[in-house]
Amino acid sequence: MPVRPTTRLSRADLADLNAFRTVERLRSFTQAAVELGITTSALSHAVRNLEARLGVRLLNRTSRTVAPTDAGTTLARRLNIGFAEISEALDELNAFRERPVGRIRLNVLKDGARLVVAPLLPRFLKRYPDVQVDITIDDRMVDIVGEGFDAGIRYGGTIPEDFVAVKLGTDIKWVAVASPRYLYHHQAPVLPKDLLSHSCIQIRTGQGTIYKWEFRKGDEYHAIDVPGQVCVGDTVMGIELALADVGITYCPEKRVERYLRSGELRVVLSEWSPIEPAMYLYYPGYRTVPQGLRELCDVFREGMLEDPVAHSDEP
């Protein structure tokens, strides 16, 4: 029986194979190019060269979609196993270093970016100069493993099961706030149900639903489907509209402390403000933890506990 010759993989081969598996996972040349840090045309060229060398079409492309062929699906599955082994081997090698080195990819909701990452990441970068951090800010609840992230930051209560979750700081107080000018022209609500006669700035969640504002006082609990002329998917926009006298918005108290101190915003229904779960950093527990991620958790935790009212309250 003839012996099949061994194929030697060059650096370019490995790069092209990784480029292909990234496109296959994201089903998008544009998104894959962003993740890989190259142009879309360079990525397309790399995949076509790979197909030409292998003599097999790996991806079916149309003007709107990208989907793997049967051969592409088979190759991607095997490559994912192989690249995972390579990644774990490098992580084990990094354990022999005096300090972590590598790249961490985070998916962070916008409030997490403002309250945790922006104020505390500079401390981490200074302490661990050999670690690179790639941050995607997204309020959608994404599959961090499927989309290639090492970890995510979300509010507690929204963390998927079977993930390791690290609490960052204390639980969070949520408040309804409005400008003094708005409250001058509208009678301030006394009970949560009074919001039904107000102009509220509705909030669209990362799951695409309109959020019901929650209020607690003792054993009483109310979830109000507030009315409003405008709906936003961003806390920053909600605060800016409240400052512009559009209506009442709902957000973590930490996000508006500066405006509460200056008097530009006032809390309404203060006795009903609920305390909700803190921010959590979460990651899959069944994989080797990337170099630097544990250190990042430690820096974020210590920073949030040092100053539980947050390091920055600017929108």
UniProtKB/TrEMBL annotation:
<protein>
    <submittedName>
        <fullName>Putative LysR family transcriptional regulator YcaN</fullName>
    </submittedName>
</protein>
<keyword id="KW-0805">Transcription regulation</keyword>
<dbReference type="Pfam" id="PF03466">
    <property type="entry name" value="LysR_substrate"/>
</dbReference>
<keyword id="KW-0804">Transcription</keyword>
<dbReference type="InterPro" id="IPR005119">
    <property type="entry name" value="LysR_subst-bd"/>
</dbReference>
<comment type="similarity">
    <text>Belongs to the LysR transcriptional regulatory family.</text>
</comment>
<dbReference type="InterPro" id="IPR036388">
    <property type="entry name" value="WH-like_DNA-bd_sf"/>
</dbReference>
<dbReference type="InterPro" id="IPR000847">
    <property type="entry name" value="LysR_HTH_N"/>
</dbReference>
<dbReference type="GO" id="GO:0043565">
    <property type="term" value="F:sequence-specific DNA binding"/>
</dbReference>
<dbReference type="Pfam" id="PF00126">
    <property type="entry name" value="HTH_1"/>
</dbReference>
<dbReference type="InterPro" id="IPR036390">
    <property type="entry name" value="WH_DNA-bd_sf"/>
</dbReference>
<keyword id="KW-0238">DNA-binding</keyword>
<dbReference type="GO" id="GO:0006351">
    <property type="term" value="P:DNA-templated transcription"/>
</dbReference>
<dbReference type="InterPro" id="IPR058163">
    <property type="entry name" value="LysR-type_TF_proteobact-type"/>
</dbReference>
<feature type="domain" description="HTH lysR-type">
    <location>
        <begin position="13"/>
        <end position="69"/>
    </location>
</feature>
<dbReference type="GO" id="GO:0003700">
    <property type="term" value="F:DNA-binding transcription factor activity"/>
</dbReference>
